[in-house]
Specification:
The chain contains two helices and six strands. It has about 130 residues and is of the alpha+beta class. It has a single domain, classed as RutC-like (60s Ribosomal Protein L30, Chain: A). It has a six-stranded mixed sheet with strand order 1-2-3-6-4-5, with helices on one face. Helix 2 links the parallel strand 4 and strand 5. Helix 1 runs parallel beside helix 2. The longest helix is centred in the middle third of the chain and has 18 residues.
């Protein structure tokens, strides 16, 4: 297996002992992304829509650094602080994934790092 650590300045630096993503042969496994601004390292203030947009932008940048894209995502896991935010997160998610979205699981969690409202991780292929 060919394994490569993925790191890009276009996404937030890891806030712990983990990689932004790992490319293993033709697969990419991302760490969960929260709504951190990559330049400041601070959580984006605002609604779950604002945070979801930043999360997916960060995720897109990590995937592109690995040689993949949102179009090549096959599975995501969404972590929500409040399941009542699901419809609003889902509307922004649909903007990024379009007509052929990946498989997805969504779970409610007690808390997220830095007080975030949403975190998303992904598995993608490299075409």
């Amino acid at each position: 297996m060919n394994k490569k650590v993925i790191q890009t300045e276009k996404a937030p630096k890891a806030i712990g002992p983990y990689s932004q993503a790992i490319r293993a042969d033709s697969m990419v496994f991302t760490a969960g992304q929260i709504a951190l601004d990559p330049t400041t390292g601070e959580l984006v203030a605002g609604s779950v829509e604002d945070q979801t947009r930043q999360v997916l932008t960060n995720l897109r940048n990590v995937l592109e650094a690995a040689g993949s894209s949102l179009e090549n995502v096959v599975k995501t896991t969404v972590f929500l602080k409040d399941m009542n935010d699901f419809p609003r997160m889902n509307a922004i998610y649909a903007e990024f994934f379009g007509a052929n979205p990946p498989a997805r699981s969504t779970v409610a969690v007690a808390a997220l790092p830095k007080g975030g409202l949403v975190e998303i991780e992904a598995v993608a292929v490299i075409s």
